[in-house]
């Protein structure tokens, strides 16, 4: 007759081992983390301490790192003061690693630290690692003796380094333990693990949305930069146009000033009537003579490209310079080309 299959609920040495590890890690780990937390924030000053870190905690809550139930433990909605005795190992770990500026070990908060690192931060990470690795996905509470002994030594060393009483650990190892409480705790942890996974998915979705928003922002910045560069180019063009306009205005002002000076000179010249002088000297002209010089004068007047604005007729006294000038003035007056004339006499102050 075939032997009956053992019940999965039957007690065994392996399940007793699992129960002891559960109590060591959950009860002992929670107690030692709470002890450290109370060192940072004594129970009598807990409310003030949490309030001083409200911004940090609220950010964790918005990112869903802190669950609503945990938030209500920190800031009870009924107005009662928070009590660290109600904080489980997960909440204590979150508070210790986010409120006090602790530096994570080289492997981070979520992996087993190097063997040689025995710092406070490394032991915190080890507590979290054992909790996740041993009880994150539980299919049985049984732990084989060889595995139990190895894990017991590792977890005990971590808890003792964190300040837990080794005598209590040794007493737990020697006593006979029930399994019911451990199973309930493991079930609660399993549910918490699923909740944590859901929160992580939400965080990933939030990060994806943030990356998309950042990408949109960068695109907007690129477009704004193009608009800014185009505006600068147009402003440069406008500045150049303004400079040219200013230069043209200045040239115009110079021209106007020169025109005023010339007009003033002509006005002064017009005050003296030299018609008698012109007639007097012109009567002394012998027709048909000196035509070559009159031709020179006409050519000079008609040459628009000439840079010379003055023609000088020189000669000794009595050579006929005044006669030539008078005839030239008379001819230009008859042709409508004479703007003004002035005759000087060394012995007449009127001139």
Task: Give a description of the structure.
The chain contains 12 helices and no strands. The protein has 3 domains: 13-175, no CATH class; 177-270; 271-302 and 313-350, no CATH class. The longest helix has 91 residues, at 180-270. It is rod-shaped. The chain is mostly helical and 351 residues long. 65% of the residues lie in helices and 0% in strands. The model has no long low-confidence stretch (mean pLDDT 81).
Brief synopsis:
Helix content is 65%, strand content 0%. It is mainly α.
Main sheet makeup = none
Indicate the structural class: mainly alpha
- End-to-end Cα distance, whole Å, is 160 Å
Secondary-structure element series: HHHHHHHHHHHH
Q: Please give the count of helices.
A: 12
Helix-residue proportion: 55-70%
- CA-based gyration radius: 55 Å
* Low-pLDDT runs: none
Number of domains: 3
Q: What percent strand?
A: under 5%
Envelope shape: rod-shaped
The overall pLDDT average reads 81
How many distinct beta strands?
0
What is the strand and helix layout of this fold?
Elements: H1 13-40, H2 46-52, H3 54-62, H4 68-74, H5 89-99, H6 120-135, H7 145-161, H8 166-174, H9 180-270, H10 275-282, H11 291-302, H12 321-334
Helix pairs in contact: 1-5, 1-6, 1-7, 1-9, 6-7, 10-12
């Amino acid at each position: 007759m075939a032997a009956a299959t053992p019940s999965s609920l039957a007690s065994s040495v392996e399940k007793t081992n699992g129960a002891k590890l559960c109590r060591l890690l959950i009860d002992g780990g929670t107690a030692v983390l709470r002890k450290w937390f109370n060192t940072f924030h004594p129970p009598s000053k807990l409310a003030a301490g949490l309030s001083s870190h409200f911004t940090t905690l609220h950010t964790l809550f918005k990112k869903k790192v802190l669950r609503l139930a945990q938030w209500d433990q920190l800031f009870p909605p009924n107005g009662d003061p928070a009590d660290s005795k109600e904080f489980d190992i997960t909440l204590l770990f979150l508070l210790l690693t986010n409120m006090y500026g602790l530096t994570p070990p080289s492997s981070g908060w979520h992996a087993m630290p190097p063997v040689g690192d025995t710092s406070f931060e490394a032991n915190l990470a080890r507590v979290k690692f054992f909790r996740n690795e041993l009880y994150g996905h539980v299919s049985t509470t049984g732990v084989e003796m060889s595995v139990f002994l190895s894990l017991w030594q590792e977890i005990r060393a971590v808890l003792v380094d964190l300040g837990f009483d080794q005598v209590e650990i040794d007493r737990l190892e020697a006593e006979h333990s029930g399994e019911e409480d451990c199973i309930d705790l493991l079930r609660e942890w399993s549910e918490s693990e699923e909740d944590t996974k859901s929160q992580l998915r939400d965080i990933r979705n939030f990060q994806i949305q943030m990356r998309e928003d950042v990408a949109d922002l960068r695109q907007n910045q690129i477009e704004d930069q193009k608009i800014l560069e185009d505006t600068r180019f147009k402003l440069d063009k406008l500045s150049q146009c303004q400079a040219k306009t200013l230069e043209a205005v200045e040239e115009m002002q110079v021209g106007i000033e020169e025109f005023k000076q010339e007009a003033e000179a002509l006005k002064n010249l017009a005050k003296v009537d030299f018609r008698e002088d012109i007639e007097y000297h012109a009567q002394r002209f012998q027709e048909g003579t000196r035509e070559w010089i009159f031709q020179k004068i006409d050519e000079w007047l008609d040459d628009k490209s000439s840079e010379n604005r003055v023609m000088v007729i020189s000669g000794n006294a009595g050579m006929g310079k005044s006669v030539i000038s008078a005839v030239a003035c008379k001819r230009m007056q008859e042709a409508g080309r004479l703007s003004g004339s002035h005759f000087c006499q060394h012995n007449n102050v009127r001139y």
